[in-house]
Write the structure tokens for this entry.
Amino acid sequence: MKTETKLTAQLVRAGRECKAEILSLKGVKPTEQGSQTPGWPDIFVSHPYWWGWIEFKGPRTLISPIQKRVIKNLMERSTPVWVVRFLDQERDYWHFRIEDYESRMYGTFAVEDSTQKVFVELLRALTKTDAILMSVKD
């Protein structure tokens, strides 16, 4: 399986090809002028299907305490944030799990290995997950 960083970069490229506006904080290094605020999710996506923050994780990568705090604060301000865990990338499929910052699972899915299709299906799954979460809150 590819690394979390390579899979994220592949999805960011695919998202931009699908006309999404994406702010990627993945791999932003501190500079002399300032540094990336720790704990922020990897990417912000603005697309007709969905908008919000995504934190990508590998199959067993833990969410740090500062990431949990930042994500919780964003969600308390009605900003969608999801943890998308790469479970596997077989020859023909990508496998993901959608979680919240406390590692509660909201769904899993597999998509055929066409990176643009994977990106669009990911956004559709996040839209459905947002709807489920909102119906539980009401």
